[in-house]
Design goal:
It comes from Brevibacillus fulvus. One of its GO terms (cellular component) is plasma membrane. This is Small conductance mechanosensitive channel. The longest helix has about 40 residues, at about 25-60. The chain is α+β, with helices and mostly antiparallel strands and about 300 residues long. Strand 7 and strand 8 form a beta hairpin. It is elongated and about 125 Å long. It has seven helices and ten strands. Helix 2 (about 25-60) packs antiparallel against helix 3 and helix 6 crosses helix 7 (about 255-275). It folds into three domains: about 10-120, Helix Hairpins (Orthogonal Bundle); about 125-185, SH3 type barrels (Roll); about 190-275, Alpha-Beta Plaits.
C-alpha cells in the first residue's frame, strides 16, 4: 500500500493534468496561437516574394542604363539577401511574442550581447567593413572573372562577410572579405588576343601578311567577341627554322583565349588554301646502297 502522502500527490497531479488537458479555454488559446504563427509565416513568405519581385523589376529597368549589368546583378542579389534576413528576423520576433515572451528585455539583451560580440569578434567586423567598401567602390561584381589571393575564378556571390568564387575546374572558394588584400579583375576592360604565327623563311613575307590581313577582316565579321579588326604587327622573332609573325585582336573582356583559338584555326585553314607552309620538325631517312664494311647496307638519318 502507498503512503497517504504519495496517494494525495498522485491524485493532485492527475487532477491538475486532467484539468489542463480538458480546459477548453486553454485549447482555444493554443489553437489561436498556432493560427497566428502560421499566418505570420505565410505573410512573411508572401511579403518576401513581393519584395523580391519588386527588387528584380526595379533593377531590371536599370539594365542598359548608366549602371552596367555586372553591378546591377550584384546590387540585386545584395538587396534580396538583405530583405530576406530582415523579414525573417521580424517574423521570428513576432512568433516569439505569440508565445507570451516580452520582446523589450529580449531586444535589450540582444543589443548588449551584440555589443559584446562586436568587441570580441574584430575579424567579423573587419570582414563586414571590407565587404561594404568592395560594394561601394565596385571593385568587382557578380559574374566577373577575378584573381583573389591567388584564387582565380568567376564571382558567384558577394556578401558583407564573404565572397564566393568558382574556378573553371568547378571548385568553390569561400574567402572572408577581411582577408582580401589583392584583387585582379579581368572583366573591367577589353582584353587582347595575341596570336604568333610561324612561317618558313622561304615564304614571301608580303604575301603572308596580306593573307593574315584578309583573315583579320573575316574574323571581325564572323566573331562577335572581337571589338576591333585584328592587326598584323609584323615579324616578332626569328627562330632556327621559322619566322614568327604576331597578330593581335581587341575583344570583349575575358574572351581573348577563345578568340585566339578561333583565329589560329582560321589562319591554318587559309594557309592551306594559299599553299603557305607552317614549318615543323621533319626526319628524312636515306638508304645507303653502297656496301659498308662487313657487307651490310647502312641507313642514314638526315
Amino acid at each position: 500500500m502507498m503512503p497517504m502522502e504519495e496517494q494525495n500527490f498522485i491524485q493532485t497531479l492527475y487532477t491538475r493534468v486532467l484539468s489542463y488537458l480538458t480546459d477548453p479555454n486553454r485549447w482555444e488559446l493554443i489553437f489561436l496561437t498556432l493560427i497566428k504563427v502560421i499566418v505570420i509565416i505565410v505573410a512573411a513568405n508572401l511579403l518576401l516574394k513581393i519584395i523580391h519581385a519588386a527588387v528584380n523589376r526595379i533593377f531590371g529597368k536599370r539594365e542598359g542604363g548608366l549602371i552596367d549589368k555586372r553591378r546591377i546583378d550584384t546590387l540585386r542579389e545584395l538587396a534580396n539577401n538583405g530583405a530576406t534576413y530582415l523579414i525573417y528576423f521580424v517574423a521570428i520576433l513576432l512568433v516569439v511574442q505569440q508565445f507570451g515572451f516580452d520582446l523589450r528585455p529580449l531586444l535589450v539583451s540582444a543589443g548588449v550581447l551584440g555589443l559584446a560580440i562586436g568587441f570580441g569578434a574584430q575579424s567579423l567586423v573587419r570582414d563586414v567593413i571590407t565587404g561594404f567598401f568592395i560594394l561601394f567602390e565596385d571593385q568587382f561584381a557578380v559574374g566577373d572573372t577575378v584573381t583573389i589571393n591567388n584564387f582565380t575564378g568567376t564571382v558567384e556571390t558577394i556578401g558583407l562577410r564573404i565572397t564566393r568564387i568558382k574556378s573553371w575546374t568547378g571548385e568553390i572558394h569561400i574567402i572572408p572579405n577581411g582577408s582580401i588584400t589583392q584583387v585582379t579583375n579581368f572583366s573591367l576592360q577589353n582584353s587582347i588576343a595575341v596570336v604568333d604565327v610561324s612561317v618558313a623563311y622561304e615564304e614571301d613575307l608580303t604575301h603572308v601578311e596580306k593573307v593574315l590581313a584578309e583573315v583579320a577582316v573575316q574574323a571581325k565579321q564572323q566573331l562577335d567577341d572581337i571589338v576591333k579588326e585584328p592587326q598584323v604587327l609584323g615579324v616578332q622573332a626569328f627562330g632556327a627554322h621559322d619566322m614568327v609573325i604576331r597578330m593581335t585582336a581587341e575583344c570583349n573582356p575575358n574572351t581573348h583565349f577563345a578568340v585566339a583559338r578561333k583565329l589560329r584555326a582560321m589562319i591554318k585553314a587559309e594557309f592551306e588554301k594559299q599553299g603557305i607552309e607552317i614549318p615543323y620538325p621533319k626526319m628524312v631517312m636515306a638508304n645507303n646502297q653502297t656496301k659498308q664494311s662487313g657487307g651490310k647496307n647502312g641507313t642514314e638519318a638526315i
